[in-house]
Every structure is written in C-alpha cells, then in structure tokens.
Design brief:
Length: 131
Amino acid sequence: MVFLYRILGWSSLVGMIIMVATMPLPGLFTKLNARYQQERMKATDARIDTITEAVGALRMIKMFGWESRIQERVSVRRETEIDLIWKRRLAELGANLCGIFLPTLTMTITFAVHTVIQKQPLTAAKGEHRG
C-alpha cells in the first residue's frame, strides 16, 4: 500500500476504500450458496422419502389408481428442488463474478481518480519519477 501510495498519491486510498467496502460481497454470495445447498439437500431428502414411500406401497397405489396423485407429489417436490438448485447456481455465479469484476472495478476507479480528478499522467514509467 505504501508503494502504491508513493506512485499514485491519494487515489490509491480511494482504491483501498473501495476494496474494503466491497469485501463483504463474495462472503454474502458464499453464505447464500451454502444456505441454498442445505435447503436443496432437505428438498432432495423429502422427494426421495416420497418415492421410497410410493415404491413400498406400489401394489396399493396401483390397486386404487393413485398413480397421478403420487406423480403430482413427486413433481411438486422435484420443482422445489430444481428451484433451489437454480438459486444456488445464481449465488455461485454472483460469487464468481465478484471475484472477477471487483478487482477490475477497484483498479479502474483508482486509475480514473488518478488521471481525471488529480489530473496526473498514467504512464509505465510513473514509478521512476517519484523514486
């Protein structure tokens, strides 16, 4: 941080503030991901329990013509499970995008402050002039 401050001046502090401010975002997405995974596992267990129950009572289900009822129960549980898988994937995508875009955003804003607000040139030889 000291090295960067010597090269870019106070615009490096702006970048540090942005990094600190956006630091909780990947953790938030990871926490959502874990929550959706736990809920999905419960939904999977419920669906499997329904299927196991149906297989155990298959003769009775066939005898009374309850196939459509059982199929509907399994379908509802499967839809819940698929919805949770979708939410988990979105949370995972959010965490991955944070890992890609937050460093780029921080760097872009830091350099923009350095060039636009401080009116300083941004060159490859910038470090040579300040010693």
